[in-house]
Amino acid sequence: MFLTYQLISKKLIIIPFVFGVILCTWIPLVPDSSSTISSSSSRPISLTNNTFTSDNTTATVGTATPIQHLIIIFQENVSFDHYFGSYPYAENLDGEVPFSASANTPSIDGLTKSLLYNNTNLNDPFRMSKDDAKIVASCDNNHDYTAIQKSYNGGFMNKFVESNGIVREGCNPGQVMGYFDGNTVTALWNYAQHFAINDNFHSTITGPSLPGHINLISGQTHGAIPPNIENEVSNGTLISDDDTLFDDCSNGTKLYMTGKNIGDLLNNKEITWGWFSGGFKPTSTTDDGKAVCGSYHVNIIGNNITDYVVHHEPFQYYKSTANPSHLPPTSTSMIGKTDQANHQYDLSDFWAAIESNNIPAVSFLKAPYYQTGHAKASDPINEQTFLVNAINKLQNISKWNNTAIIIAYDDTGGWYDHVMPPIVMQSNDPEYDAIGGPDGLCGLNGKDSKYQDRCGYGGRLPIVIISPWAKVNYVDHQLTDQTSILQFIEDNWSLGRIGDYSFDEKAGSVLNMFNFTKGHYAEKLFLNSNNGTIVKNYSK
């Protein structure tokens, strides 16, 4: 049991929750002839002779679902309300390309009129236009572990301007309340119209990028060495961004993580996988032979933005899965397998694998920094270009009928979201947790909270599932978090759990966003990478 805080009629109440085992009745790796995979409201797909059989695809069973190739595109620093708060209604001002949603679009937990015009924050939420993308590329919000807790103000969700407001000189603190609609984040809204999203998907703990990345691959931010670094690591738990000991391109203080990650579990079963980062390929080496990560691009406001960010590559924090010198794969055929690259690659290696029909079972894609959506470096326009180009290509691969793409984010970036997350993990570190008083959040350590400084869940994040097996124009409301993706990988490939109090044991399932019935296929959707609109006649 755990406690969650909910704000009802302006009063903070505490509600007990109990998590059950989500996938205890899943199909085993080698099912018997009577096994079926069911969707929540649909006729199950049948299994015959250990194969999935549907209208136009047959694949040997090595997975618990028809998904044999999973691609996670992990983006940066966006809250759900920041991109989807007004979904599916766009304002469509003069000079903008109108966005019109299907009349059958389901409702979301978004920004109501009361939240828009009578908000209890210092500023009301306000719509940002495509022109405001340049402002986003100029300014960043405070989104550290403690600031985000304080912004929630014990569940009243009304301290975002004071706690998360823009901290860089010359920036407007009220910008933290801004949101975009379908005239700017057009591609994501179109993907939502044709595939599945969830409006109750959260960061696993509060805080910035690195904890979000670590939770995606392990669900466990405890186990950091050294165990205490001011404002970075507390009580052995990672709470902020810092570079790793196992990367030539690291700067400043360096740490590393102990324990297991999903790469270790995949390796144990000899499942092919890889993390593919923009800018991972060295541009040169130092006199002592260390890799230099010097590639860059110019962002929307003309700033040079280095492509590779060390704390956006989580596998580099574990000795078992690191590639400190950024060594390339020994051949294209070895991408996804264990060699000197140790499953850590440049983004170009992913596309080389695609061209050679050698796609790994599990792939994590990290855009060059200027295309991640992270404020101060990126923006929704450059981010959209990356997403659309990648997804257009992937829908044309020969293995598309057994593939799923998940677009997800590492943290909220401090942007306003009106939903108080349920607190499933307590912490009572007086230095870094917002405990007691008017802005208290996390409370005392509970029996499920063996480790300090893992206060979570954090804020809501966008998640989109694009696949032939995705439900169409569907909004899932089930409680999920970043480790729900981790859990799906574990269960789909029968890997077991991380253990040691990983959040994967608490995670809700993403399965409700899929429809695995025989004959179900969500149609392909090709978009214009410049404006996110639908392309009627697409060719490679």
Task: Give the key terms.
18% strand; 540 residues; alpha/beta; globular; four-stranded antiparallel sheet
The rounded distance between the terminal residues' Cα atoms is: 51 Å
Low-confidence stretches: 1-60
Average pLDDT confidence is 88
**What share of residues are in beta strands?**
15-25%
Please work out how many helical segments DSSP would assign.
11
Number of E-type strands = 27
Silhouette: globular
Q: What order do the strands of the largest sheet run in, or round the barrel if closed?
A: 22-17-23-7-24-25-10-26
Query: Which structural class do the helices and strands define?
Result: alpha/beta
Radius of gyration: 22 Å
Helix content bin: 10-25%
Please give a structural write-up.
- The chain has 540 residues and is of the alpha/beta class.
- It has helices spanning 80-84, 113-117, 133-136, 145-152, 160-164, 186-194, 209-218, 262-268, 347-355, 380-394, 482-492, and strands at 2-8, 11-17, 36-39, 42-48, 51-53, 58-60, 69-75, 126-128, 178-180, 196-198, 201-202, 224-225, 233-234, 237-238, 243-244, 254-257, 273-277, 284-285, 291-292, 296-298, 304-306, 344-346, 362-366, 403-409, 464-466, 474-476, 480-481.
- The strands form 9 sheets. It has an 8-stranded mixed sheet, sandwiched between helices. It has a 4-stranded antiparallel sheet with strand order 3-4-5-6, with no helix packed on it.
- It is globular.
- It starts with a strand and ends in a 48-residue tail after the last helix.
Task: Spell out the blueprint of helices and strands.
Elements: E1 2-8, E2 11-17, E3 36-39, E4 42-48, E5 51-53, E6 58-60, E7 69-75, H1 80-84, H2 113-117, E8 126-128, H3 133-136, H4 145-152, H5 160-164, E9 178-180, H6 186-194, E10 196-198, E11 201-202, H7 209-218, E12 224-225, E13 233-234, E14 237-238, E15 243-244, E16 254-257, H8 262-268, E17 273-277, E18 284-285, E19 291-292, E20 296-298, E21 304-306, E22 344-346, H9 347-355, E23 362-366, H10 380-394, E24 403-409, E25 464-466, E26 474-476, E27 480-481, H11 482-492
